[in-house]
Amino acid sequence: MGKMQGKVVLITGGAMGMGQSHAHVFASEGAQVVLTDINEAKGRETAAAVKQSSGSALFLRHDVTSASDWRAVVAECVTRFGKVDVLVNNAGVSAHGHFSSHAEQVLRKIMEVNFFAATELTRLALPTLQRGQDPLIVNIGSILGHRGLPHNSEYSASKFALRGWSESIRSELAASGIGVLLVSPGTVDTEFFDHLLTRTDSIPWGKQQGISPEVVARQIVRAMQLRKTEIYPNWRGRLLVVANRWMPKLVERLLSFYK
Ligand SMILES: NC(=O)c1ccc[n+]([C@@H]2O[C@H](COP(=O)([O-])OP(=O)(O)OC[C@H]3O[C@@H](n4cnc5c(N)ncnc54)[C@H](OP(=O)(O)O)[C@@H]3O)[C@@H](O)[C@H]2O)c1
Fold first, then answer.
1. Is 258 a catalytic residue?
2. Is the CB of 192 under 6 A from ligand 1?
């Protein structure tokens, strides 16, 4: 029997990248996956591939910045399955470049997709999650939610916000039995960096070698079983967080070379 047998899992940004891997891995563990994405063609393709290879999947078109879409997606899950056990707030976007060279809209868009979409979809889904089995909110954060990096100010801000909110609601929801898992990956091999909202300069440290999105999905399954509240899928990312905690001035000096 799969480790997620009988669970209904709602994943945002499920057409590509990490969301796509979450869908495959969770379905292979017996979950009924509901994947949503703004990209309808790719989303349908992914759902069909999941059904063919690993199990049950349903695609719903969903722009995470649209309030009417949040309501429609949650209502559809209730109608079809009567519950949502796991909500994975995964959709995300970024931009590369100096804060001073970016327009206000870049920051607003990143906060909308990476932060407000997660908070408001969760708010709407809470009564439904409450009826779930071992309900869990999985927020896909980033190492940049633990240490801000130059050329990534808007993205870092959005992931710090997501982390702070995750910690707060984890305590608030403890009595209700709804868990909150924060996932903080470093670089993952997806097309994320081809989807940047804007790129006004290249990242001075170049593209880092990433881990496979499937590794992240498998770590999430394991974290669910062990009831962990936080995971750091890449050791390099974890190292940066530890170094920043114990040697913040050194990390600051090193990062200031990448001005
Ligand atoms: N890749 C990394 O190195 C990395 C590292 C740490 C954390 N993360 C986080 O991991 C999550 C997934 O990233 P990824 O690497 O899988 O990126 P990805 O390959 O770009 O996939 C993100 C998916 O989200 C969709 N999406 C974007 N805006 C949306 C919206 N408004 N409504 C609905 N769907 C939307 C995208 O659709 P379109 O392609 O059509 O826009 C895409 O299918 C993000 O939260 C990201 O911040 C990524």
1. no
2. yes
